[in-house]
Design a protein that fits this description.
This protein is mostly helical. It is built from 24 helices and six strands. It folds into two domains: about 375 residues, Na+/H+ antiporter like fold; about 110 residues, Rossmann fold, CATH 3.40.50.720. α3 packs parallel to α10, α8 packs across α10 and α14 crosses α17. The longest helix is centred in the middle third of the chain and has 36 residues. It is globular, with a radius of gyration of 27 Å.
Length: about 550
């Protein structure tokens, strides 16, 4: 069957590797790389024969990966943290790349040019691993998480100039003219793609959708990504660069969400091919022979990136635990280092030993990342105990007035706005506590009393006059912030009534253990209201309907609150 049998072997091995990775709580792509090692030429057992042909197919995986990245990236994500993202992000990449290159050359004896490639690979963190870790912890909307996501977006974007610049370092004699030529071609191609893409592509996709063919829409989207990629390749640039630019152009159209949802399954299959081929080039005997070297470099990566990124976070004004969470959370190496490693190896600019070292460290840091990230708060607290109390967290104070019996609403999103609107109509005094400065400004513009800062901090609670408050309503989704807020608020005001949002079902029991007065699970409440509306449409007896809804609520929440 030739390449067909190799394809079947890779998919089956990828499935087994993915199942194994999921079972031991590792990222799926680590399982795919391990599967590639098992079907590669350096291990016994079934082996892929047409390696070169599979590698060519894997290039489509890289293109689709970057195409979907372009579709997903929204510069609006950078707005709340634009200063550290747009200034600190490039600074972090340069500092980490320099530190990695210096360590590679001076400590590990890697040739200078290869050490630069190694530093570039170390400088990027894993978007997949970080987002999965934040989502599992239910903290995707915290200030530290927003900073991390902003830095990840900048790092992902930085891969594109890296793919242009790094291959030009091979010939250092005429590097500046070569680099200028490549940048000029890239800029001209980028302008052409943007002009044609913003005018021709939406018109074409609208015509295709008018025919009602979902299949043809998918084909046209994929053709756009790989077609533009092939255009950049023909112009002497990276195939993946063109796919990324095409994705960014399409992301500004009304078709971006549907295009992304349609292309994701195809991206995942070809992405599996790419990560498996990465593993196929890996020699396990290298790990055995260089275990101490790998352990040392992994330790230096975790330590060095944590200090650089955490230090930058602190320099940009983020205090308390945020620098520890941000620095340690982004201390792993990311999936795009695989793309850089394959590019360097394919261009003959990376030796096999450096490739194996980089690949080993990437896999190990990604696998250990959730465990290492969980240590951020304990390390931060230990540091704070050693260094003494933190300085006051910056906050915007309320107008000088004495509040009593008021409600503190933590979070001014949709839920917080709804609560604030009703309380204002009822004449009940309230204060908003909101960390997002743009949202805080919205509250002020609407004449709502507000303080800016993290509600889990005692200084912010004090600014909201927690000592005189009657109720605190925690509408924020982050359960870790809620837990800390409840503990500190109750310490400052033991008679306080606490109403908190539960993100998931199991959070209800956690909140009860904290002694809150009421937990609200949005999905439960939505289902209960749907039941009520359904019964009302049948003119159901109100007393019986109330009994049935009360029983449902009791079953969902476990007991009456």
């Amino acid at each position: 069957m030739g390449i067909a049998s190799d394809f079947v072997l890779i998919v089956v091995a990828g499935l087994l590797g993915g199942v194994l990775a999921r079972a031991i709580r590792l990222p799926l792509l680590v399982g795919y790389v391990i599967a590639g090692v098992l079907v590669g030429p350096y291990t016994a057992g079934p082996t892929v024969v047409q390696i070169h042909d599979i590698e060519l197919l894997a290039e489509i995986g890289v293109a689709l990966l970057l195409f979907s990245l372009g579709l997903e990236i929204s510069l609006r994500d950078l707005q709340p943290v634009r200063r550290i993202a747009l200034i600190g992000g490039p600074l972090q990449i340069v500092l980490t790349c320099a530190a990695g290159a210096a360590a590679g050359s001076l400590i590990f004896g890697i040739p200078r040019l290869e050490a630069v490639w190694l530093g570039a690979m170390i400088s990027v963190s894993s978007t997949m691993v970080v987002l999965k870790t934040l989502s599992a912890a239910g903290v995707t909307s915290t200030l530290a998480s927003r900073v991390m996501i902003g830095l990840l977006v900048v790092q992902d974007l930085a891969v594109i100039p890296m793919l242009i610049i790094l291959p030009q370092l091979g010939g250092l004699d005429n590097v500046l003219p070569k680099l200028a030529r490549q940048v000029g071609i890239a800029a001209a191609f980028l302008i052409a793609v943007i002009v044609l893409g913003t005018r021709l592509l939406p018109w074409l996709l609208k015509r295709i959708l008018a025919w009602g063919s979902r299949e043809l829409f998918l084909v046209s989207v994929v053709a756009t990504g790989v077609g533009v990629g092939y255009g950049t390749f023909s112009a002497g640039l990276s195939f993946a660069l063109g796919a990324f630019v095409a994705g960014m152009v399409l992301s500004e159209s009304e078709f971006s969400h549907q295009a992304l949802s349609d292309v994701v399954p195809l991206r995942d299959i070809f992405g599996l091919l790419f990560f498996v081929t990465v593993g196929m080039l890996f020699d396990p005997s290298f790990v055995v022979a260089h275990i101490r070297q790998i352990a040392l470099l992994v330790s230096l990566i975790f330590l060095g990136k944590s200090l650089i990124i955490g230090g930058l976070a602190r320099a940009f004004g983020y205090g308390n635990m945020a620098p520890w969470i941000i620095g340690i959370g982004l201390s792993q190496i990311g999936e795009f280092s695989f793309v850089l490693a394959r590019t360097g190896l394919g261009a003959g600019l990376l030796s096999k030993s450096t490739y194996d070292l980089a690949l080993s460290c990437t896999i190990v840091t990604m696998a250990l990342s959730p465990l290492v990230s969980s240590a951020a708060l304990p390390i931060g607290r230990a540091w704070r105990q050693w260094r003494g109390p933190a300085r006051d967290v910056k906050a915007v104070e309320l107008p000088k007035m004495e509040l009593k019996g008021h409600v503190i609403i933590a979070g001014y999103g949709r839920g917080g706005r709804a609560v604030a609107r009703v309380l204002r109509d009822a004449g009940i005094p309230l204060v908003i506590a909101e960390w997002d400065h743009a949202t805080f400004s919205d509250a002020q513009a609407q004449g709502v009393p507000a303080v800016w800062g993290d509600v889990a901090q005692e200084e912010i609670l004090h600014a909201a006059q927690i000592e005189n408050a009657r109720v605190i309503v925690l509408t924020i989704p982050e359960q870790s912030t809620i837990r800390l807020s409840v503990e500190r608020a109750r310490k400052m005001n033991p008679s306080l009534i606490v109403i908190a949002r539960a993100m998931r079902e199991h959070n209800i029991a956690e909140l009860r253990r904290l002694g809150i007065n009421a937990a609200v699970q949005p999905e439960f409440e939505g289902g209960i209201e749907m039941v009520r509306q359904t019964l009302a449409s049948y003119s159901f007896d109100e007393i019986e309907a109330s009994r049935l809804i009360s029983n449902l609520r009791s079953d969902l929440y476990g007991e009456r609150l």
